[in-house]
């Protein structure tokens, strides 16, 4: 039962990444069109439109993410469900504001119903409504019932959510510290996306100039709330300075005969962390080899969040806390320049602390127990003769190798992906060839139970998953 619950929560977390993936584009348009940048009103309005309809996008995106084949029919059903829940609950009680949660709930319902009814048969006289056309209908009907329930049950739930949000926001440095630690600690389980969705899109309210109520730290930041950004600013010193320093420490502590072999991948993923804020490839390079270092990293992340709060630094991002977002959103931030000296201090702390811990406790970080802990090509570059546009598929050799090292096609029940990892349901995790997967570019293999596993492969995870599924078919 517990495994099933964790698996379903992970599935929702993965589904949340689809609508979240549009935020970088929205933030880019919003900032480039702003008066303090290029001052192009229609570009700014285009970005603002995405943030204004975020709940609807979650309804569509989550439904597609939950559906087993990513069908657009489930997305349509998610939109239908969102409108029904939103308008239905407000007809009962106009003070109800479910916000992004309405979209998430509608998306989960639509995706689940799609998986159940996408191939349903009906009598001939109702044949037009059979199959996928039935999904929006049954979703709408289900959400009518949910609207009736939420119309009376949601006000106390809404009050509880607001109370939790108020506590976290009102807890000051302690609140952001706890969030920072949990944000990193939940990454191995893939559950951090769920928590982030509440912090970034639900907790806290701000009424913009147009009178629209905006919720969540990320949404409020881009809406111009001067009090938003406390739950994002502390990530900048970690992702731009701290983790690259950890990579440098691991390079300097690697054995002489392995330094050259690990230098390329360490510096590559360190630069990725600095520039874009994508940290999982770097974090997974030591997360399982030296979990003690990851505990230190999680605690330092919390400390960074607390320090930025104490100094009154507020900054936000549309994607992650890398240099691109730092520069792009500089004009909306409060005291953003302080993140640079703080980052330099963070760099020094990470470097010397990691180096000391690795040498003192002889931790098996990359380059200290062999050259193959992390592959020299995290992104899984194409084999000779494969297409550059689809480095994984091409001749199918890579996909076939993944299938082989995952225990063969008979061992694979479901292959999905999120930003940097494959999410797999298998018959037996003991059949996985971990050494083979690492040779293909995997930097971490997480066995959540006997049937659920995640393989960290870098930012081409989705392309790899598509190639594997194509090969299986």
TrEMBL record:
| Keywords on record | Cell membrane, Kinase, Membrane, Phosphotransferase system, Sugar transport, Transferase, Transmembrane, Transmembrane helix, Transport
Enumerate the Gene3D superfamilies for this protein.
Answer: Glucose permease domain IIB
Per the Swiss-Prot or TrEMBL record, the active site comprises 418 (phosphocysteine intermediate)
Superkingdom, taxonomy of origin: Bacteria
Q: Where are the transmembrane segments?
A: 12-34, 54-84, 96-114, 134-154, 161-182, 228-250, 262-279, 285-311, 332-353
For whether the record's keyword set contains ATP-binding, the answer is no
Give yes or no: UniProt keyword Coiled coil: no
- What main location does UniProt list? membrane
Domain PTS EIIB type-1: residue ranges: 396-473
Ranges of residues in domain PTS EIIC type-1: 3-370
Q: Name one GO cellular component term.
A: organelle inner membrane
GO molecular-function annotation terms? kinase activity; N-acetylglucosamine transmembrane transporter activity; protein-N(PI)-phosphohistidine-sugar phosphotransferase activity; protein-phosphocysteine-sugar phosphotransferase activity
Q: Which PROSITE patterns match?
A: PTS_EIIB_TYPE_1, PTS_EIIB_TYPE_1_CYS, PTS_EIIC_TYPE_1
Q: Which InterPro entries match?
A: Glu_permease_IIB (IPR036878), PTrfase_EIIB_Cys (IPR018113), PTS_EIIC (IPR003352), PTS_EIIC_1 (IPR013013), PTS_Glucose_EIICBA (IPR050429), PTS_IIB_1 (IPR001996), PTS_IIBC_nag (IPR010974)
- Give the record's GO biological process terms: N-acetylglucosamine transport; phosphoenolpyruvate-dependent sugar phosphotransferase system
UniProt xrefs under SUPFAM superfamilies: Glucose permease domain IIB (SSF55604)
Which Pfam family, an example, fits this chain?
PTS_EIIB
How does the UniProt record describe the way this protein sits in the membrane?
A: Multi-pass membrane protein
> What NCBIfam families does the database record attribute to this sequence?
EIIB_glc, PTS-II-BC-nag
Q: What name goes with this protein?
A: PTS system N-acetylglucosamine-specific IIC component
Q: Which organism is it from?
A: Halanaerobacter jeridensis
């Amino acid at each position: 039962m517990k495994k099933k619950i964790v698996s379903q929560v992970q599935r929702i977390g993965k589904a949340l990444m689809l609508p979240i993936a549009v935020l970088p584009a929205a933030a880019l348009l919003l900032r480039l069109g702003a008066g303090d940048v290029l001052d192009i009103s229609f570009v700014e309005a285009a970005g603002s439109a995405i943030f204004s309809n975020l709940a609807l996008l979650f309804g569509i995106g989550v439904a597609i993410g939950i559906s087993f084949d990513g069908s657009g029919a489930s997305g349509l059903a998610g939109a239908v469900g969102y409108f029904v829940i939103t308008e239905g609950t407000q007809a009962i009680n106009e003070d109800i504001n479910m916000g992004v949660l309405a979209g998430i709930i509608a998306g989960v319902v639509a995706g689940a119903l799609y998986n159940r009814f996408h191939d349903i048969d009906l009598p001939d006289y109702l044949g037009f409504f059979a199959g996928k056309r039935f999904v929006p209908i049954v979703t709408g009907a289900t959400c009518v019932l949910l609207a009736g329930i939420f119309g009376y049950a949601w006000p106390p739930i809404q009050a509880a959510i607001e109370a939790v949000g108020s506590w976290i926001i009102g807890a000051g440095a302690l609140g952001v510290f706890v969030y920072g630690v949990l944000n990193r600690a939940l990454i191995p389980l893939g559950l951090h996306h769920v928590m982030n969705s509440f912090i970034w899109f639900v907790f806290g309210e701000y009424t913009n100039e147009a009178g629209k109520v905006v919720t969540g730290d990320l949404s409020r930041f881009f809406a111009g709330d001067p009090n938003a950004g406390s739950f994002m600013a502390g990530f900048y010193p970690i992702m731009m300075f701290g983790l690259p320093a950890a990579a440098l420490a691991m390079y300097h502590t690697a054995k002489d005969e392995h330094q050259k072999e690990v230098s390329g991948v360490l510096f590559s993923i360190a630069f990725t962390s600095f520039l874009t804020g994508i940290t999982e490839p770097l974090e997974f390079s030591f997360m399982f080899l030296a979990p003690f270092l990851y505990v230190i990293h999680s605690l330092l992340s919390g400390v960074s969040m607390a320090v930025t709060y104490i100094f009154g630094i507020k900054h936000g991002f549309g994607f992650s806390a890398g240099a691109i977002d730092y520069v792009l959103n500089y004009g909306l931030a409060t005291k953003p320049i302080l993140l640079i000296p703080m980052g330099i201090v963070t760099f020094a702390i990470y470097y010397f602390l990691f180096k000391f811990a690795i040498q003192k406790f002889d931790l098996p970080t990359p380059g200290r127990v062999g050259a193959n802990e992390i592959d020299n090509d995290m992104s899984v570059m194409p084999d000779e003769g494969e297409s550059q546009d689809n480095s994984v598929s091409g001749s199918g050799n890579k996909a076939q190798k993944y299938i082989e090292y995952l225990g063969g096609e008979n061992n694979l029940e479901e292959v999905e992906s999120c930003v940097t990892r494959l999410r797999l349901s298998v018959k037996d995790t003991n059949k996985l060839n971990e050494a083979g997967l690492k040779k293909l570019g995997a930097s971490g293999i997480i066995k959540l139970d006997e049937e659920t596993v995640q393989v960290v492969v870098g930012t081409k995870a989705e392309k790899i998953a598509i190639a594997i599924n194509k090969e299986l078919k």
